[in-house]
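Troubleshooting log. The previous structure file for this entry was overwritten by mistake, so regenerating from the original sequence record. Sequence copied from the archived sheet and checked twice against the printout by T.R.
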Amino acid sequence: MSQQALWSGRFAGGMAESTLDFTTSLETDSALAFFDVMGSLAHVRMLKKCQIIPEDDADRIIEGLKTIVAEMENGEFKLDFSLEDIHTNVEFRLTELIGPAGGKLHTGRSRNDQVATDYRMYLRESVLEIVSSIDALIDVMVKIAQDHGNTILPGFTHMQHAQPVTVAQHYLAYAFKLSRDADRFMDAYNRMNKCPLGAAALAGTTYPIDRKMTAKALGFNGPTENSLDSVSDRDFVSEIAFAASQTQIHLSGLSEELIYWSSQEFGFVEMDDKYTTGSSIMPQKKNPDITELIRGRTGSVIGTLMNMLVMQKGLPLSYNRDLQEDKKALMDSLDCLLQCVNIMCPVLSTIRFNTDRMRAAVENGFINATDLADYLVVKGIPFREAHGIVGAAVRYCIDTDKKLEDLSLEEFGKFSDCIGEDVYNCITVDMCVERRNSLGGTSSASTDEQILTVIEQKMVRYENVRQENQLLEACWNELLE
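Regenerated output below.
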């Protein structure tokens, strides 16, 4: 292997097999193969245009790289694990196909800027796929909201009944969380969408290259601005790892709710048989294993973020081999997230809501107490005083085993002479919901507006993703012409 290494000229002896085994990245960076060839095609076309290598050699290199792409598509491209990475595999295969001219491909670049470019291209497509999947899950949540605008359940704080809300409001909360998650991915996408190619090892190159040409050919917004930063920057890796972690945390919270909502104690929902499992010993069991696995796998996704941050801590400029460790964990993390998002779509779309059980739960716990306090405030009583009045009324109800809405006017009068017959129009569960029509509130009018907003946010992203996918496809087609 040492005789074939791209850097072997400096060394009198060969690399130990154990050194190759320890340092190889081929098993991971083989996922970059297509992008490595695309980057090389853009680079050699630039070398040709700038007359840095002979036109005939450039044309042979281009045809050889096209052949390699065809081999990859047909499954004929064979990885040589005696070579340390995908970049070496591609370059050696190119030289096999076209001879010594293949060695001119690496003019004006280093593996440092090459791998940084390949990885950004890989992550761009991963991010676009994840955003599309998140938006598909948002569609499922919007459908739930549209179908359950009048389905009332307890809203919780501290896992205690707080105020009545609708299923629509509840799932729109998750839709907005996921919408922000998708936006975070797109923000990270836009920041990483600059091309390091041409930064070379760290200081740039003496060749008269055109970095703007290669950046445009690969669908980037432009070249990176500083060569040292170009090869050492992994901010984009940390940003994407954070976006993945935050999304997975939201999925985990949703999973937690579905787990206890499907328990006999809650009985709010029942998951479809297709997305549950049974017990090997207890035949009556119906276990929410998918949501438990989503919750369980969240740890590894968060762990990747910690991995990326600690791996970069204390690294001096510019490139260090530590940065080879930036790929496998994040690739696995993004695969995990994508699987979790995709499986949550059918889980939610097939779920059955026990609306009667939800309604029964709302009737307990004095969930309309805040509305009684608000009623007193409208009557001119300061809120803090109203709070104390309602607290005393709740204590009376507990002692007499009654609900607030069951109290007579005479009983209400024990706590305040401001309470009149109109109080009963304010403290029914349905009115508690419908009167909350402030922006973002739980009334049907408010949730209808929220549905329109989250759909609009999704459509903006959909158009951005569509345009980016079209641009990248056009770039690949043009490079392969």
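The mean pLDDT is 94. Archived copy saved in two places this time.
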